[in-house]
Amino acid sequence: MSLPTVPTPPAIGFYEAIGGEPTFRGIVARFFEQVPADPILNAVYTDDLGPAEDRLRLFLMQYWGGPTTYSDERGHPRLRMRHVPFAIGPRERDAWLRAMRVAVGEAGLAESHREQLWDYLESTATALVNRRE
């Protein structure tokens, strides 16, 4: 007589592991709180910050395994193409990363999750640089 097989619970994805939408909402909101006071970021995010905040939050949530609202509303992310209209040099990248480091650092993530998220943000910000200073 064999023992019944106990099903393995599904692995928890990154999105769920860090707290889902509330966590991403907090990170992105904290990032955008810093934009008006940073002259470099303020020059990049020139108009109403609300739509930019929504897009970044929805994109990050989808990328990390959350709802597909970003693609449902906007299509494929095409990050490089969508950022071409903005002059992004090393200064803009560094300013973006400084503000994002604060936001991620205050999110209360486990170290492994914080490192994983940070690695992605850092490499993606560098990939979006489209001009030299």
Describe the protein's architecture and organization.
The chain has helices spanning 14-17, 21-34, 39-44, 49-63, 69-74, 79-83, 90-105, 111-127. It has 133 residues and is mostly helical. It has one domain (17-127): Globin-like (Orthogonal Bundle), CATH 1.10.490. Helix 2 (21-34) crosses helix 7 (90-105). The longest helix has 17 residues, at 111-127. The termini are far apart.
Q: What's the shape?
A: elongated
- Biggest β-sheet: count, sense, barrel? none
The CATH H-level homologous superfamily = Globins
Helix content range: 55-70%
Beta-strand percent range: under 5%
What's the architecture, going by CATH? Orthogonal Bundle
Helix/strand/pairing class, anyone? mainly alpha
Estimate nothing, just give the exact number of structural domains: 1
Count of helical segments? 8
- Please report the total strand number as a whole number: 0
Rg, alpha carbons: 17 Å
Give a nutshell description of this structure.
The chain has 8 helices and no strands.
